[in-house]
Amino acid sequence: MYNYLDFEKPVADLEGKILELKKLAENGEAVDVGDEIQRLEKRSRDALRDAYKALTPWQKVQVARHPDRPHCLDYINGLFSDFTLLAGDRNFGEDNAMVSGFARFRGEPVLVLGQEKGSDTKSRLKHNFGSVRPEGYRKAVRLMEMADRFQIPVVMLVDTAGAYPGVGAEERGQAEAIARSTSACLGLKVPSIAVVIGEGGSGGAIAIATANRVFMLEHAIYSVISPEGAASILWRDTTRSKDAATNMKITAQDLLNLKIIDQIIDEPLGGAHRNAEAVISATGDLIAKTFKEFAGSGIDFREQRREKYLAIGRSL
Among 158, 247, 151, 144, which residue's Cα sits nearest to residue 198? Predict the structure, then answer.
């Protein structure tokens, strides 16, 4: 059974009935219910399709935050081989919210950087719910410099509500660490690809998302601040988060129209959590296609990246 979102209640009711009928059939407590199950399954698919046909921005926020959505480590395990986890910023310590290391992607070496939210209580606490501290961004800078030195492309998997806002993080220079990480992304001489797989929140996201190509999953979000934070600042009322989400243009479709991102990766019907394998495979195919386009192109990746982000500023 899935963790159903508020707007998925009709689907939840139908799938609950299907499960009940299947259990009765397994226990021999019902006559042949095959036809009824098929009828309900069709109704369930139709209801799911209707629910996802025109999601509001706030509903997309809910999907992007779904607890069963595949996270950074799921993509690493599904797409990369020989992944070697590297730790520490060589200054303060290790930050488990930023998962980083060198790996092979379809036989070729890459650096992988990503924010991991965790999938259960223990792992969420370990990874600090994907909220990176300064040492996480300084670790990212260290590894990007290493990748540049050895001419290794970079893949970044973005999934964070925002950088960690705690007192300790601010004391250790959170803003400076984010700025240096963003600068390191812009300064890479090697090609870089960023994929927003869930939430792309604030500077915490852009610190590892300033890439040559930025892709987003269909129901991911990417914003300068969370809808709750925006509502609190603009209206001093967090209950207006839905209004904030609508006005901020945080969906993949809005951002593609604004030319903030380069392409949208389609999700299975019902969101990435309903078929993680399919969406991870599609993400891998797009990354491979993009690297193939880069190969032998003669692109000055640092200059291309510079022009890309200057163009955003000029057009907006």
Answer: 158
